[in-house]
Fold each of these.
Amino acid sequence: MTPLFTVAEIRTIEHAAAQRLPEGALMQRAGQAGANEALDLLPFTTSRARVLVLAGPGNNGGDALETAAHLAHAGAQVTILHFPPTSAPAAERDAALHRAVNSPARLMTLASAADGQAAMQGTDWTLVVDGLFGIGLARAITGEFAVLVATVNQLRCQVIALDVPSGLDADTGAIVGGDAGTALRATHTVTFIGDKPGLHTAEGRDHAGLVIPSSLDIDRDLFPPARAKLNDVALFAHCARRRRHSSHKGSNGSVAVVGGARGMAGAPILAARTALNAGAGRVYACFVGDPPAFDAAQPELMCRSAQEYDFNSAILVIGPGMGGSASGAEMLASALHSHSPVVLDADALNLVAGSGPLQTQLAQRSAPCILTPHPLEAARLLGMSADQVQADRPAAARRLASKLAATVVLKGSGTVIAARDGTIVINNTGNPALATAGAGDVLSGLCGALLAQGWPEWEAALAGAWLHGMAADVLVSEGAGPIGITASELIPAIRAAVNRLAAQHGS
Ligand SMILES: NC(=O)C1=CN([C@@H]2O[C@H](COP(=O)(O)OP(=O)(O)OC[C@H]3O[C@@H](n4cnc5c(N)ncnc54)[C@H](O)[C@@H]3O)[C@@H](O)[C@H]2O)[C@@H](O)CC1
Ligand SMILES: Nc1ncnc2c1ncn2[C@@H]1O[C@H](COP(=O)(O)OP(=O)(O)O)[C@@H](O)[C@H]1O
Ligand SMILES: [K+]
């Protein structure tokens, strides 16, 4: 289980740890950790490696100077582009500079980032170490530093970021300064003290690459209980069940997907097929528009008119392709009036966003409730723009969960799952193959199927996000994507993932 800590928490831990250690110990450990990861990436003949180390003006630059000295002593050809501090540096940073100067590394002290860019030209670098800025970056990277970042981003070699890729907000995964800023794209990030939410959501996955946490050997008692974690099978495996020989379809619950206004019948069909293939015993597809007689590709589904369905008799997945009509709103109100557990997606969320009474009705329900908004749906529910949601996904998910008293699955790269009490989990399975129409319908059907099979709301949301992403990861590893995977193809891959989970962890 990987806990995730905010910058404020990391600063508190660091401060407490520093009291127990000799001056500079943490920076030295950080530099050693960076060097260890770098050495793993270098060719066996270290002397052939040309390593470019960017050492910024703050303590992140201090880490980089320590890393550079280690790599130079290990035999690599190291060039340091050093940006001196603009105010009096910490003694530990001075000591790091001293070690770098006394190492075989070539140190270029630069007055401007433009000098740095010139110094980078003409060498075929094996590896770049990014120690420009860490968690202390206070404003957008602009001007000459932005040009330097763009130059590194065009290199094709591996790039290790120290602590955080320069320019990325470690709390939110947004680029510091938004559109005015930029961030360095690393292939690996060695992150210090504890892992951080921003490395795994929003822009995080594209900029951090593979994340390697390094605790710097800080005593465990200095870490607070984590309010955020990375998603992990260990968080939900206890709910997995193997099928009993004595089971029957009634043992595995019923799901009713409610949606399908005229012209949008495919969305509930995708959700319903997923629910069936993820193990629900009986699945109804209920249409706000005219129902088809049956689904030819999945005749096991029971296609009904939503108006004629008893919403108390199944787990309800409401919203796929439902539209915003008065009859959709009426179906939603009666579904919320029922005692059934619900998954609210797509148009159901838009209808809730536009109606105070529906919001009150939702917040007052006692049955399990999972909301699966994408960023624009979340924005409508919060009365803000999608850009504002993306600027701080953990905060948006938390606010929604508390406002509507539900488990919220804020979708997108690094899906954020939030509980009513403010706990969050960030999912790191999945990939851009999922950026395709209908992938969200598949997720809502999967969550419904897990609820139907007795999973509690929180674990159903965690496992739903994880299995959905894992299915896409398996398809991509088999060469089927990420380009061109369709939502329908996810369904058999989800079935395989559900069965693997039950076989490996089910009781
Ligand atoms: N605090 C900790 O927990 C530890 C920190 N360490 C390292 O120290 C880092 C934090 O160090 P700092 O707080 O010094 O911060 P940083 O090194 O991240 O950056 C601050 C420096 O950048 C300058 N700066 C900020 N925004 C700028 C901009 N947009 N353009 C140009 N210059 C800008 C500031 O004036 C300051 O000199 C961590 O990320 C980590 O790498 C490690 O040494 C280990 C312990
Ligand atoms: N780039 C991406 N990386 C990882 N997951 C993604 C990405 N883009 C989309 N997804 C996932 O795919 C699903 C898309 O859902 P949604 O936006 O509701 O699509 P639709 O309404 O077409 O079904 C969500 O589960 C989301 O988290
Ligand atoms: K960095």
Amino acid sequence: MTAGTRGSISPYAVFDRDSWRALAAGSSLPLDAADLDDLASLGDRIDLDEVATVYLPLARLLSLHVAASRRLWAAQSDFLGDTTAKVPFVIAVAGSVAVGKSTTARLLQTLLAATPGAHRVDLITTDGFLLPNAVLEERGLLGRKGFPESYDRRALLRFLADVKSGREEVFAPVYDHQSYDIVPGQVQAVDRPDILVLEGLNVLQAGRRTDGSAPDIFLSDFFDFSVYVDAAEADIQRWYVERFLALRRTAFQNRAAYFHRFGALTDEQAHETALDIWAAVNGPNLRDNIAPTRSRARLVLQKSADHSVRRVLLRKL
Ligand SMILES: Nc1ncnc2c1ncn2[C@@H]1O[C@H](COP(=O)(O)OP(=O)(O)O)[C@@H](O)[C@H]1O
Ligand SMILES: CC(C)(COP(=O)(O)O)[C@@H](O)C(=O)NCCC(=O)O
């Protein structure tokens, strides 16, 4: 572990791979290579050694936080004479499109569910709170999917406030990447899990009222912990292009896929198209709306060009 660079004030303690891995020495992995294959997203290169080095220590740290927060909740409930038994511990996972948030979120879900105390861990992605394509089109926002204005932020806030207040069944809408739209009538229920992982590129954003003023409640008010998955934009852009090429051979071949028309592109055309989408949508969104939220995260996973995590930054202030 090292302190921040001399002369500058950093709120983070910085861990290289070896010092971070040592924190979970002696713990065994509750998953095998086949389980890992099942949960890793397309294009996310990850192996069991990476899980042991990066994600196992993180899951152990998170379990400490969960246990401490339960003790605090119980003490406060005692003091207040409150009967709400417990409320979910909420972990936010943020980062760019194509950085590997979903693999991180699913790994945390699997590892935390296997920790002693057998936590029930639910996972929600914020894409369910995107406005339906018809509404985006009406507002001229179809080319801004993933930007703050493309979400129903109020519904997302309401959802999380309900989860965090210990409500029995709370429902999140569902998004489908194949149809590129919200699935009408489909919902995902969250029923007082021990832990909720909330994954999405917008989770650390502050939001804004229609008159431009700051809201009096933020999504992050409901977080107990937050993780930002970070990498150099040139690497993320390359991962995006590689995934687009792979999707062209798989998901885009499906006639029902919104991007089916890209299924017939040559390698070169697909490469150009992916770069164009990056330049028009995902790159500007990363620079303007996502990367500026990194410093709000409790922990930052900094990835190298090969997807492996190079450094872990943990807030100490
Ligand atoms: N057009 C698409 N068709 C099918 N799956 C997709 C498409 N775009 C993204 N995905 C999948 O959706 C998930 C979320 O992707 P994304 O929002 O880029 O976040 P991340 O790569 O950080 O997990 C990933 O599992 C990815 O493989
Ligand atoms: C659906 C997404 C906005 C991500 O949603 P999230 O769950 O992070 O809120 C993103 O994966 C996406 O599809 N962006 C649109 C631009 C593109 O197709 O690359």
